[in-house]
Amino acid sequence: MNNPSNLWFAVRVKSRFEVAVSKALRSRGFEEFLPTFTARRQWSDRIRVSQKPLFPGYLFCRFEPANRAAVLAIPGVVLLVGQGKTPLPIDAREIESIRLAVTSGLRVEPWSRLQIGNTVRIERGPLSGVQGVLLRFKGANHLILTVQLLQRGVAVELDESWVVASKPGLQLPTMPMFSPEGSPRHVQ
């Protein structure tokens, strides 16, 4: 199935199934690509280093569109990213650019695209689950946000890695793909 004329597609997988689906695709003869980065997590007594998916919930696979049923049959695969029921291919140059960045030896990590005024959700620390509005960045790794508790604003200084972009009551996808019309494109 490793045919250079096959196209690359984004595959949406269940949360934390990226590695399992990657191995299953490879064992069935598909060319897959799961870009990862080195994540450091600070504990009170140590730092834990691990490999995390660069695009959580997604990986890339090269196959003929006619063979998509074989990819969708793999446990953990949710859907193929595309328009309607048609998976949309990803330019091979984009995949190679990501592959080059990941293998370059340079520090690579997901970019949250947090901007001043964004609604964010705190995912770690004592305020986990609380939403707020990003007020400003303080240094390279800290930000200040306001949290509306009891109808009063409270400025909280947090590590940027603790928060994700959010909208009140809405879970944002980690790797949105948009059609020319601006609507998300997911294929099952």
Report on the structure:
- The protein is mainly β and 188 residues long.
- It has three helices and 13 strands, in the order E-H-E-E-E-E-H-E-E-E-H-E-E-E-E-E.
- It has a five-stranded antiparallel β-sheet, with no helix packed on it.
- A hairpin with a 2-residue loop joins strand 7 (82-83) and strand 8.
Topology:
Layout: E1 7-13, H1 18-27, E2 31-33, E3 36-42, E4 47-53, E5 58-63, H2 68-72, E6 77-80, E7 82-83, E8 86-87, H3 92-103, E9 119-122, E10 131-138, E11 142-149, E12 152-159, E13 163-165
Antiparallel strand pairs: 1-5, 1-6, 2-5, 3-4, 7-8, 9-10, 9-13, 10-11, 11-12
Roughly what percent helix? 10-25%
Tell me the strand order in the biggest sheet. 12-11-10-9-13
Strand content: 35-45%
What's the helix-strand series?
Answer: EHEEEEHEEEHEEEEE
> Uncertain spans, ≥5 residues at pLDDT below 50?
168-188
Rg estimate, integer Å: 19 Å
Report the biggest beta sheet as strand number plus sense, adding barrel if it closes. 5 strands, antiparallel
Query: How many extended strands?
Result: 13
Structural class, please?
mainly beta
Number of helices: 3
Question: What overall geometry do the principal axes of the alpha carbons give?
Answer: elongated
Q: Give the integer mean of the pLDDT values.
A: 79
Distance between the termini: 21 Å
